[in-house]
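Kindly go through the following sequence and its backbone structure tokens. Advise at your convenience whether the structure tokens fit the sequence:

___
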Amino acid sequence: MSVISQDVRSGTKPDRNLALELVRVTESAALAASRWVGRGDKLAADGAAVDAMRLLLDTVPMDGLVVIGEGEKDEAPMLFNGEQIGDGSPPVVDIAVDPLEGTTLTARGFGGALAVIALAERGTMFDPGPCVYMEKMATGPEFADLLTFDRPLGEVIREIGDRKGGGPEDVTLTILDRPRHEETVAEIREVGANIRFITDGDVQAALLAVSEDTGVDLLWGIGGTPEGVLAAAAIKCLGGEIAGRLWPRNDTEREAAIEAGYDLDKTLRSNDLVSGQDVFFAATGVTDGDLLHGVRRLDSGYSTTESLVMRSRSGTVRKIEARHDRAKLREVTGGRYG
């Protein structure tokens, strides 16, 4: 079913559910990366995911521009910012990609790795420029109005607890386990809230925070700005809210951001990070996580994948399970994956 409410003759806006095209892209990246699970080489895993994702992206009917090419901050393989992708036909769109969110998770065989992509109308995705990190919070629709950096985090936690009909002890946060968070973690523990630490993967963490019945009420932490844009795209489809504030790592980044015109005190909401009204998001599990099953390589010669596919305009959220014939995939992809 297609939801059409735009002038398709202009060719400048999405007019069909491209998420159903994009899920083939994330499936390919997940299948390629899955061959490197537990092998200790995160760059090889990331490179395989990037190569497979690029191969499929060039077949998608769109004129895409990569605005968020995850990997830039750590010199990993990537689909680079400014790269043109798709077959060049309308619609004209911005693309955010993370071919392998959780490279370390994949290399070490841990759960929660994803292949992720988002798409929106051209010119509607936030370009982080020199600021590759941001402080961010995300939560579901019932607490969205409570997100703020103008009050201590402890007050926000108490307000969420009150709204749940309890107290801080009824609130669970998910936080990246990083030394930079130690002071705030101590404050959260003093307030009495619960914490679920993650080692990597704050796109998945944001999805858990905004989704129902996951046991997570709030994401907080200083993580990647590209991941913040990807999370905002998903939140535009799912509901909820993200609040972010750019976090330069040093004076050089701070000066570069100010010179480029970025307001480091501004709170960026989902509509600031992705202002488009027709947003598409797809993610496929690489390793088993709380959100999606990972790739299963079966003795029969098939692999299975589980994906999340969403569109903001229609509000449709799908989970797609697929079975892939590895021998045929190797044949049609020149051995890139299968």
